[in-house]
Amino acid sequence: MPPAAPHRRNEAVVELPNVARRDLLLTVNRMAIERVQKLIGTSASTPTYILCSTSLAPAELLPTCVKISCDRARKKWSNVRALARLHGVPFIFTIDGEDAAVFYRHPDYRDDMVRSWLEEYHKKVRMAQIEREQHTTTDSTMVQRVAELERRVIALEEGRHNG
């Protein structure tokens, strides 16, 4: 993740509930006009996201941003936050088709619990797949054995009828 302006202890972190969806357009518009950066977090001390004017965003981040209108971002705010936080997807919010602000995960943000849950989930998916493959192999082996037994029974019955 590209470097961001360092978080200073005296710099205010806006708590996430205070970034209301209905105010997103106004906030993004202000970001674009004033060319400022806003740290957003789930607590007053820990920034999770950065919302800033496009001129303040790291240059290497801009080509990877997903463009989304402020209205769409407002409607899908939970999804936008989740993609940014969990997958590091950066967004450019647009107003009337013009790039206005960039929203991305703060580079210092780490959520080890989410990583451990994802690791556990991927292990369980692999184990379930292995178990399914074993059952499929066992089932196909049993089907082959039953088919062989049926052929033998038919051969024996034919032998009795012919002999």
Tertiary shape: elongated
Structural class: alpha/beta
Q: Which bin fits the share of residues in helices?
A: 40-55%
Would you count the extended β strands for me? Answer: 6
Strand content: 15-25%
The radius of gyration computed from the alpha-carbon positions, rounded to a whole number of angstroms, is: 29 Å
Instruction: Report on the biggest sheet.
Output: 6 strands, mixed
Descriptive account of the structure:
By secondary structure, the protein is of the alpha/beta class. It has 2 domains: 13-105, no CATH class; 111-163. 48% of the residues lie in helices and 20% in strands. The chain has helices at residues 24-34, 70-75, 77-87, 112-162, and strands spanning 13-15, 37-41, 47-53, 66-69, 91-95, 98-105. It has a 6-stranded mixed β-sheet with strand order 1-2-3-6-5-4.
Walk me through the topology.
Layout: E1 13-15, H1 24-34, E2 37-41, E3 47-53, E4 66-69, H2 70-75, H3 77-87, E5 91-95, E6 98-105, H4 112-162
Parallel strand pairs: 1-2, 4-5
Antiparallel strand pairs: 2-3, 3-6, 5-6
Name the features.
disordered N terminus, single chain, 2 domains, alpha/beta, 6-stranded mixed β-sheet, 48% helix, 4 helices, 163 residues
Quickly describe the structure.
The protein is 48% helix and 20% strand. The chain contains 4 helices and 6 strands, in the order βαβββααββα.
